[in-house]
Amino acid sequence: MKIFLDTADVEEIRQGVAMGVVDGVTTNPSLAAKAGRNFRDVVLEIVEICPGPVSAETVALQADEIVREGRILAKWAPNIVVKVPLMAEGLKAVKQLTSEGIKTNVTLIFSASQALLAAKAGATFVSPFLGRLDDIGQDGMILIRDIVQIFKNYNVQTEVLAASIRHPVHVLQSALAGSHVATMPFKVLQQLVKHPLTDKGIETFLVDWQQVPDAATVF
Ligand code: E4P
User: Fold this and answer.
1) How far apart are CA 151 and CA 156, in angstroms?
2) What are the catalytic residues (predicted)?
């Protein structure tokens, strides 16, 4: 499963990419606002740091305007993926952008049938928001599993991008469900690295190493 960072914070992206495990980045208007910088500057920096797909979101509500915004974003770098919200006008725009060879990520997906429609329109990725479903008392993982199954049934090429991830269990369950990608906040990536037994084990090894006669000269 590919790991994307869900952030517009370039320092987090720099650290994640340096770890060697980050395959791409997703942003959205809320994350862009949080970054507090010009969106174009931030995205141009991110695409330099991360060679993988970088999602940048459109904000128009009419298909022709979404297409216009998508074309602008796509010109910024070859690894830009144009993020479009799931709505009828968005589907139209995705169809058009796809026909122009522009990659798309259909976002704000909350049902498997929405994902199927996005795939039919030609989306490169679909982003089901599992955390936001959990937030309202539903089981977001069911949505991920359903979409993965439906795409398998019909050999759909669109990739499932599990989004709105809140904690490491979401990542694990997305991988078990066969999601192609999980996009997560940097904090969740850091949580995935850590295990108390790993930390304890390192500590013990370091203490024991001091008992080895040539410990000070081996390295
Ligand atoms: C990613 O593409 C989404 O925009 C993001 O995962 C949404 O997450 P949130 O529900 O934590 O805002």
Assistant:
1) 5
2) 83
